[in-house]
């Protein structure tokens, strides 16, 4: 059925549930598993960077460290289940775009991700990456709530 599953994670507790689900599904199906996380585009204005209280290099390093922790956790979960997982960090990309491009580029046939279930104003302000992936994907998308 599915031979290459892409698991997308932002490192949240909810994403960890999606990771566990994807690892179990990949193991049951004998599918390959790839993990992806994205670092959103860099700040462009010096005033924005100054408000953060760090330099652009510090920001880039912090973002890379967070992505590494997220991917290490996913790979660790897979290894604990006796399964392997290839990690990918997509830099300077919005999550939905990174997830869809990675799935397409690697020939994945299923995308697994979590939904935070935001509603109302929070959904309008923050948006829903899972909704963007689900509505724009040509592949099946499994959303774990």
What would you note in describing this structure?
The protein has 6 helices and 5 strands. The protein is α/β, with parallel strands linked by helices and 145 residues long. The chain has a 5-stranded parallel sheet, with helices on both faces. Helix 4 (95-106) packs parallel to helix 6. The chain is globular, with a radius of gyration of 16 Å. The relative contact order is 0.22.
Characterize this entry briefly.
The chain has 145 residues and is of the alpha/beta class.
How are the SSEs placed, and which strands pair?
Blueprint: E1 4-8, H1 13-29, E2 32-38, H2 46-52, H3 56-80, E3 86-90, H4 95-106, E4 110-114, H5 120-126, H6 129-136, E5 141-144
Parallel strand pairs: 1-2, 1-4, 2-3, 4-5
The span between the termini is 23 Å
Strand content: 15-25%
| Series of secondary-structure elements, N-terminal to C-terminal | EHEHHEHEHHE
Structural class: alpha/beta
Q: Please tally the helical runs, counting DSSP H or I stretches of 4 or more residues.
A: 6
Major sheet, described briefly? 5 strands, parallel
- Percentage of helical residues? 40-55%
Number of extended strands: 5
Poorly predicted parts: 121-126
**Alpha-carbon Rg, integer:** 16 Å
Shape: globular
Overall pLDDT: 87
Strand order in the sheet with the most strands: 3-2-1-4-5
Features of the shown structure:
145 residues; alpha/beta; 5-stranded parallel sheet; 52% helix; globular
């Amino acid at each position: 059925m599915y031979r290459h599953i892409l698991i997308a994670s932002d490192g949240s507790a909810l994403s960890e549930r999606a990771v566990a689900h994807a690892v179990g599904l990949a193991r049951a199906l004998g599918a390959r598993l790839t993990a992806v996380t994205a670092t959103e585009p860099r700040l462009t204005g010096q005033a924005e960077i100054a408000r953060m209280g760090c330099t652009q290099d510090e920001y880039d390093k912090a973002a890379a460290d967070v992505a590494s922790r997220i991917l290490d956790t996913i790979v660790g979960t897979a290894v604990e289940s006796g399964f392997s997982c290839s990690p990918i960090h997509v830099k300077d990309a919005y999550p939905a775009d990174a997830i869809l491009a990675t799935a397409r580029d690697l020939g994945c046939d299923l995308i697994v991700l979590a939904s935070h279930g935001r509603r109302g104003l929070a959904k309008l302000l923050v948006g829903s990456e899972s909704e963007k992936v689900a509505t724009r994907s040509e592949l099946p998308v499994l959303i774990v709530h």
